[in-house]
Write a structure and sequence with these properties.
The chain is an alpha/beta fold. It is built from seven helices and 14 strands.
């Protein structure tokens, strides 16, 4: 086993991590660098690939070293800590028994299930927005639900119904949760949602904008995230062109969230 160490800008991190997984990495750790950069250490099983990969990733100062084999499930679990998000939520790994702070809703997360453990800035931004927007008795649509964390949060905040949509086969497991589960947003009735939330890529938000507007009731809130600050203008433009008025922009590190009202 060997590890490949890379240094990159924060805005490059997610794409670089995806490339490392594609190249067969068995585990990746992250560290913050002075000046706002990010250090990535990716672990690989086949030592013979080390020089080739170091060369391919040389623009990020690719350096490799031999490593002892690791139990990556144990490593991942040891690094995931409970955290308080917003004013109301306490996110905790499902294998931990930490007590829930007074006045907070407990959501147990499993990092191996799908995107949405609460560690990412966009998930935190969406949870905070749901706190501000949801009123008891509302119907909430979660597009690209992933782990289902946002749909579950909506129910805890008093939503009468949470509709979860996702194409990822892993998300089929969400059918076991107390949610209404559908494969795609086009299966949702027109004008049926009081709040729509979508924490997905900017390209997908732009492509699905007409559907997001169709399912939202007039006057309802459409919450979108999953994009960085440099991509806000493009997302805002397509929402404004689709019968919505953008009223809020929130950021966390390099990531952004928009709240729009359906006209």
């Amino acid at each position: 086993m060997f590890s490949l160490y890379l240094e990159c800008r924060q805005e490059e991190k997610d794409q670089l991590i995806a490339e490392l997984w594609d190249r067969g990495s068995s585990g990746i750790t992250e560290s913050d660098l002075p000046g706002g950069g990010c250090g990535l250490r990716a672990f690989f099983e086949a030592d013979a690939c080390a020089p080739q990969l170091a060369g391919e990733f040389s623009r990020w100062s690719g350096r490799w070293q031999r490593e002892e084999p690791r139990d990556w499930v144990a490593v991942a679990r040891s690094r995931l800590e409970p955290q308080c998000v917003g004013e109301r939520f306490f996110l905790v790994p499902e294998w931990r028994g930490d007590p829930t702070p007074t006045g907070r809703f407990r959501i147990e997360v499993n990092p191996g299930m799908a995107f949405g453990t609460g560690a990412h800035e966009t998930t935190q931004l969406c949870l905070e927005a749901l706190e501000r927007e949801i009123q008891p008795g509302m119907t909430v649509l979660d597009v690209g639900t992933g782990s289902g964390i946002l749909a579950r949060a909506a129910m805890l905040l008093g939503a009468r119904r949470a509709i979860a949509c996702d194409l990822d086969p892993v998300a089929v497991e969400l059918a076991k949760l107390p949610l209404s589960f559908m494969g795609t947003a086009d299966a949702v009735r027109t004008g049926s949602a009081d709040v729509v939330v979508a924490n997905i890529s900017p390209e997908t938000i732009i492509a699905l904008a007409p559907e997001l507007m169709r399912v939202a009731r007039v006057g309802s809130a459409v919450i979108v995230s999953g994009f960085e600050q440099a991509e806000v203008t493009g997302v805002e433009a397509v929402l404004s062109a689709g019968c919505a008025t953008v009223r809020e922009l929130h950021t966390k590190n390099t990531w952004s969230l928009l709240v729009a009202d359906r006209r």
